[in-house]
Every structure is written in structure tokens, then in C-alpha cells.
Design a protein that fits this description.
One of its GO terms (biological process) is trehalose biosynthetic process. With 742 residues, the chain is an alpha/beta fold. It is built from 26 helices and 23 strands. The strands form 4 sheets. Strands 10-11-9-6-12-13-14-17-16-15 form a 10-stranded mixed sheet, sandwiched between helices. Strands 20-19-18-21-22-23 form a 6-stranded parallel sheet, with helices on both faces.
Length: 742
């Protein structure tokens, strides 16, 4: 008996809770819909009324109310109308509106102060009203407004009725069923019910032997047939699902520009998307008398460009091309890409002093070596810091100009150049959803602690709602740095930081490239063999390794060359047969550390080539200039292997671009353990670039890896970057931003 009562009670409570939950949800949904409908309808009617009776005021007429009678107000279905002339003068246009004025005075004053028409639901004298204040634009009457009251009490009445129609009906039905169930149990059919439970379990597990035992009681025959039918349907569905899983390539799970575009519509809901970076995605430069548009060498541009193409929006960046000013409009904007016009680029102009101190000084002589553990001492100067603050303020001003007429915009700040920008934006626009993605590593707290302005940098970043890094390791380092340096609360359970009343979420978002199912399944395209590519440069060799980097002391170029030298010394059979093609784009050449790096790279190449070079062969071919993606692609596709030997790197997209190019699923990637990509690309040969001996052995291992093993590893890595492409990266960031409540 106790079991029966417990069962009945459980049914009543469970069904009651479900009914309560559904009822609350329906009431909330219906209330929101009714409120939205009332708001929209009121605004439309207000505009019609305004055109009929107030529009001439904007053209210079004085306010006249004689034509606005009670019948006119009733005709428009308003509960009342009043005209706000000044703080001390509110003119009611009908008698019913007088009791409504006092409770809504504060709201009217807020609207006047905000200088923007708006509405609000207000409860007055135990009744709900929707109050819409429409500004009257007139030079000699700056504070005038028309205030319209609409009765909203019917929304409450409608939602109250839902309780009886839904909750109590469902609850009473559950109660009746429970009572009947109790009576049936009392009539002694507990054994048949247990039989039903056995059938249900058999259906769930697919145990058809147990299901073959038909019931002795005839009235259970229909139930038995239903359960048998459900079991067969479940088994068929399972078989179909397994078959589809074998045949499908999970197209629905792979992110594409189109899918991201649709996702953006849902997440943004017509809100503005703004990306801020130092480097622009397109530069206009003079070539003779012509102006050409080029894409600068940048991993960040490589990652962000597909997102803006897919979603539109605005990209704000520094204008750096010598013809940039000639190609923008009066608002410093230009539509890009050329001839496609997918999104808008706004250029910010920096003076020579600002560029020297903000970019070359604090950003690249200070923060860059500070965050990269590559044994280069960071340099911090007060003047560089002052310009860093100034440029961040300049960008903040540009952003605020662009979003001044936008509600709840999404702002995605890029990289270490703008650590202060999130706080500057949030101070002026707390409604904006601001994220900063840090494209470079974040060091341990002790290393970052040497920066004289670490607190200011951390406070600036924590102005954001979301901070993104490539790896969880970098997130942990950041949180530990905050914990050591600031008066704040680090919440490790949710990886967030609370400063005052503001929460900042810190999450890893491993960045990627634009590689979709279409690319993954594309038919292999013709490619040049290593010997053909090398022959174009007067080199005769059978094997080719490709390296693509900016010439930077963090990229491990010297270590790579030493590994090649050791490989050729240790395995002399490959002398005359193996060449490393190193593509190197010169950057930041105004800095001594970078010019020294270029000189060191060239000197090491000349030394090694001088040691091994023959008439038609040399071990290292150095192509020292910026190459477009199209120029690099033949080397990616044709090389036997690719070497990425970063000494410290946030992600490194070269590794992923190489994998994406291998449409025949061959080739080998040698990847530094200090690059963020090493945590995802498990099919690569992972090396410590400081260990020259083992890196040299890795070259031999890559060249001699069996084709079937190459195929297995490359296919695995290509599938990984397909499933975790840049569109998925963007979606993860935007979803995280959208979920944050300001």
C-alpha cells in the first residue's frame, strides 16, 4: 500500500511540476509576445497620430491642442495623451490622463535627457500602462515631447487566464489518472504491470526473446502490441542512424560561411558586429602610376578575414598603405574585398610618432618579447606607454563613433595592441558586448610581472566581457597573473574574474583557418613535384621541405637551419637530395632586434650553404619577401614535409594551412611543441626545436615515413581542422559573447 501511495504521490508531484514549468514558460512567452505586439502597434499608431497633429510643430508652427479632443484620442485607442513642454509644464489633452502623469514623470525626464523617443511599461494605480514618449523636434522647443498612454492591463488578464486553462487542467487530469491508477493497483494487477515493465525494458534493450512472451491477460494485448511496435521502430531507427553515420560525412556538423552567416543572424539579431585590429586586412599601395590592393602578411588577418566575409560588419584598423587615404570615402571607409564588397573597413590614421612608440615601441619591443619566452629582453619606456594609451583612446573614439546609434553592439578586439581598449569602450557603452582575443601566448605571472604597467594592462583587458586565448594553459597563466596583481576575485570553477560588479569570462578558443567539407572532399588537384619546383630556382634535388614564417626571433629559424645542418651531417646520403625552401617575409625591420634577426638568418644560411653547396644543389633556399597565398600554395602542395619550429607561438596557422593544402593526404608536418597547434595536430611529429639532434632525426623520420602512415595521419589532421575551422572558432566566440548578460 505504501508503494502504491508513493507511486501515486510521485506521479502527482512530477506531473504537477511539469505542468507548472510549462505553464510558467507559456505565460512568460505569451506575455513577452503580447508586450512586443503592443509596443509595435503603439509606436505605429503614435507615428500616425504624430504626423496628423504634431508634425507641423517641427516646421515652425506653435503647439495647438484644440483639434485633439477626447473622441480623437479614443479613436486612436489611447488611454491618454499629454504634452511635455518643460520640467514644470505638462499639458494633459484629456481628463483621464491626469492621474497618470505623476507616476511617469521620471521616465519622461529620462527620455528628454536621452534625447531619444522610447517607451516603457509602467504600473499606475494597480493598472499596467505602456507609456511612449515621442520627442517633438523644434529648435525653439528643445525639451518638448508628446506622451502617449496605452492600457496594457489586458496582458495581465490574458496571462492570468492561462493558469486555469493549462495548469489546473493538467494537474486535475494527472490527479484523476493517479486515482484511477490506484484503484487499478488495488484490483490486483500489480503482476501484469511488472510484466509491462519487463516488456518496456526488453524494448529498450532490443531483447526480442522476452518480447515473444505474449500476455495471459487479454486486456494487455493492445499494450503488448504497442510496445512490440515501438521496439521494432526503435531498432529500425537505430539501424538507419548507423547506416547514415557510415554514409554521411557529418556535413551538418561542419561549419561553413553560410552556416556562420545564419548563426550570426540568430546571435546578433541585427546588432552591429565590429572587429578592431592594428593590421588592416587590405592595403592600397602605389605600383608605378597604378594603385594595387594587397593582403598584408598576418596570421590574424588570415583568421579574421573569412568571418567578416561571411557575416559582414565593420573592421577598424590602422591605415598603412601609401595609397590608403586615396581609396577611402569622407568617413575614412572603404568596402572590401575589392569587387566583392562583403564588409566595411574603416581606417584609423596614426602619426609617425604614434606608430614608432605605440606599435614599434611598447607593443613590439615591450609586450611581444614579454609574452614570448624566446630569450629576448623586453624594453619598456614611459614615452612608449604614453603613446600606447593615446592610440588605444584614439581607437576607442573611433569605435564609439561607429556604434553611437547601435543598440547592444558586439565588439571583438584583436590582440596585444589594444589591451586598454575594452575598458575604454565599456566605460562609455556598458551595453556593448566586448571581447578581446589575445593571439599571442600569455606568460607565467612572474614573467609578466616585470612590466611596469601590468595592472593597467590587466584592468584594461578585464573591461571586456570575454577574454579569449588559444589554449587553456594561456588562460590559466592569465588568471594566475590577475590573482597575483589585482584586487579581484578569480573564480576558477567558471574561469572568470570579478572586479567590482563586473565579471569577465576567460576561455580558450583555438583559432583555425577557412577549411570546410567542400575543401575536405574536393578532388585532388594537379601539383608540381619537389624536383620541378626546385628546378625553377636552379636546384636539383629529390626531396623538399617547406617553411613559411615572418622573420621573427620567436619562429626558431636558426634552430631549424641547425637541424637541417645536423641532418645532412648525420645522414650524408641525403646531401644533394634534400633542400629546405624557407619563405620569409621581413617585418618590423625598423627594430634592431628584427634587423639583427634578418642578418643572423642570412648569415646562418650562407654558412650552411657554403658548407654543403654543390654546382646544382644547396641545402637551404631562402625566398626573402612577402608571398601571397597563391604563390605559397605550390610549395605547400608539392613539399614532402613542412617544418614549424616556433620557440613560442600562440597557435601558428602555417601548420594548419600546410595540412589543408594536402588534398592527396600525404606529406608530413614537423611541429614545435611550443606552438599552440601542437595540442590539436596529433598526427604531426612533435619536436623540441632547441633539441637539434632529435629535430634532425625527425626530418629523417618524416622523409622515410611509409605512405600508408602518412595517409592515416594527414587524413586525421585534415578532418580535425575541418571540424574545428575558423567558422567554428568564430561561432564559439560569438555564442560565448551572446550568452553574457550585461
Amino acid at each position: 500500500m505504501k508503494i502504491n501511495l508513493a507511486l501515486i504521490t510521485s506521479i502527482i508531484v512530477a506531473v504537477g511540476l511539469v505542468a507548472l514549468g510549462f505553464t510558467i514558460f507559456q505565460i512568460s512567452s505569451d506575455r513577452e509576445q503580447l508586450r512586443n505586439e503592443l509596443e509595435g502597434k503603439t509606436i505605429r499608431v503614435v507615428e500616425d497620430f504624430y504626423k496628423a497633429y504634431f508634425e507641423r510643430v517641427e516646421q515652425g508652427d506653435s503647439l495647438r491642442y484644440s483639434k485633439i479632443t477626447d473622441s480623437v484620442i479614443n479613436q486612436y485607442r489611447f488611454a491618454g495623451i499629454a504634452v511635455y513642454v518643460s520640467q514644470d509644464s505638462i499639458v494633459p489633452l484629456n481628463q483621464d490622463v491626469k492621474p497618470l502623469l505623476a507616476p511617469s514623470t521620471d521616465f519622461i525626464s529620462q527620455v528628454i535627457s536621452a534625447d531619444s523617443s522610447m517607451g516603457r511599461f509602467i504600473r499606475i494605480n494597480n493598472n499596467n500602462y505602456y507609456v511612449y514618449t515621442r520627442l517633438i523636434q523644434k529648435a525653439d522647443l528643445p525639451a518638448a515631447a508628446a506622451v502617449f498612454y496605452t492600457d496594457a492591463e489586458y496582458i495581465k488578464n490574458l496571462t492570468n487566464g492561462i493558469w486555469f486553462r493549462n495548469f489546473w487542467r493538467w494537474f486535475l487530469q494527472a490527479l484523476a489518472i493517479s486515482v484511477v491508477t490506484l484503484l487499478i493497483i488495488r484490483w490486483g494487477i500489480l503482476s501484469p504491470i511488472n510484466k509491462v515493465i519487463e516488456w518496456a525494458r526488453a524494448a529498450r534493450l532490443g531483447n526480442f526473446e522476452l518480447l515473444q512472451k505474449r500476455p495471459r491477460v487479454k486486456f494487455l494485448e493492445p499494450l503488448y502490441k504497442e510496445i512490440s511496435g515501438i521496439a521494432k521502430a526503435m531498432q529500425e531507427a537505430k539501424a538507419v542512424a548507423q547506416e547514415e553515420a557510415k554514409l554521411r560525412t557529418t556535413a551538418e556538423s561542419v561549419w561553413t560561411p553560410e552556416r556562420l552567416n545564419e548563426e550570426m543572424k540568430v546571435l546578433l539579431q541585427n546588432k552591429m558586429m565590429v572587429v578592431i585590429s592594428n593590421r588592416e586586412p587590405y592595403m592600397h599601395v602605389r605600383v608605378g602610376r597604378e594603385i594595387e590592393c594587397i593582403v598584408p602578411a598576418s596570421g590574424m588577418v588570415t583568421a579574421m578575414e573569412p568571418i567578416l566575409k561571411a557575416c559582414g560588419g565593420l573592421w577598424i584598423a590602422s591605415g598603412s598603405g601609401d595609397a590608403d587615404k586615396e581609396t577611402v570615402d569622407e568617413h575614412d571607409k572603404v568596402s572590401v574585398p575589392p569587387y566583392e564588397n562583403k564588409y566595411t573597413l574603416r581606417r584609423v590614421w596614426l602619426t609617425k610618432e604614434q606608430e614608432n612608440h605605440f606599435y614599434y615601441g611598447f607593443s613590439n619591443e615591450g609586450l611581444w618579447p614579454l609574452c614570448h619566452i624566446a630569450h629576448t629582453r623586453p624594453v619598456f619606456r614611459k614615452i612608449d606607454w604614453d603613446y600606447y594609451v593615446e592610440v588605444n583612446q584614439l581607437y576607442a573614439k573611433a569605435v564609439l563613433e561607429e556604434i553611437k546609434n547601435e543598440d547592444d553592439p558586439f565588439i571583438l578586439v584583436q590582440d596585444y595592441h589594444f589591451a586598454l581598449l575594452p575598458l575604454f569602450i565599456k566605460q562609455e557603452r556598458p551595453d556593448a558586448k566586448v571581447a578581446i582575443f589575445w593571439h599571442i601566448p600569455w606568460p607565467n605571472p612572474e614573467s609578466f610581472g616585470i612590466c611596469p604597467w601590468q595592472k593597467e594592462l590587466l584592468q584594461g583587458m578585464l573591461g571586456a566581457d570575454l577574454i579569449g586565448f588559444h589554449t587553456q594553459y594561456h588562460c590559466n597563466n592569465f588568471l594566475e597573473t590577475v590573482n597575483n596583481a589585482l584586487e579581484s576575485r578569480v573564480i576558477w570553477e567558471s574561469f572568470s574574474v570579478k572586479v567590482g560588479n563586473h565579471f569577465t569570462l576567460v576561455k580558450p578558443f583555438p583559432i583555425s583557418i577557412a577549411f570546410t567539407l567542400k575543401n575536405y572532399e574536393a578532388e585532388p588537384t594537379p601539383r608540381q613535384e619537389p624536383a620541378e619546383l626546385l628546378k625553377q630556382h636552379g636546384i636539383t634535388a629529390q626531396y623538399m621541405c617547406i617553411g613559411v614564417e615572418r622573420i621573427d626571433y620567436t619562429k626558431g629559424l636558426i634552430e631549424k637551419f641547425l637541424a637541417v645542418e645536423r641532418f645532412l651531417d648525420k645522414y650524408p646520403d641525403y646531401q644533394g637530395q634534400f633542400t629546405l625552401v624557407q619563405i620569409g617575409a621581413v617585418s618590423r625591420s625598423l627594430l634592431k632586434t628584427y634587423s639583427d634577426t634578418v642578418n643572423a638568418v642570412e648569415a646562418e644560411i650562407n654558412r650552411i650553404n657554403g658548407k654543403f653547396k654543390t654546382k646544382n644543389w644547396q641545402p637551404i633556399l631562402f625566398l626573402k619577401r612577402h608571398h601571397s597565398h597563391e604563390e605559397i600554395m605550390p610549395y605547400y602542395k608539392g613539399a614532402n614535409l613542412c617544418m614549424v619550429t616556433s620557440l613560442h607561438d600562440g597557435m601558428n596557422l602555417v601548420a594548419k594551412e600546410f595540412i589543408a593544402s594536402r588534398d592527396q593526404n600525404d606529406g608530413v608536418l614537423i611541429l614545435s611543441r611550443f606552438a599552440g597547434a601542437s595540442q590539436e595536430l596529433h598526427g604531426a611529429i612533435i619536436v623540441n626545436p632547441y633539441d637539434i639532434e632529435k629535430t634532425a632525426d625527425a626530418i629523417k623520420q618524416a622523409l622515410e615515413m611509409p605512405k600508408d602512415k602518412q595517409y592515416q595521419k594527414m587524413k586525421q589532421m585534415r578532418r580535425m581542422i575541418m571540424n574545428h575551422n575558423v567558422y567554428a572558432w568564430a561561432s564559439n566566440i560569438l555564442r560565448s559573447m551572446a550568452s553574457i548578460q550585461n
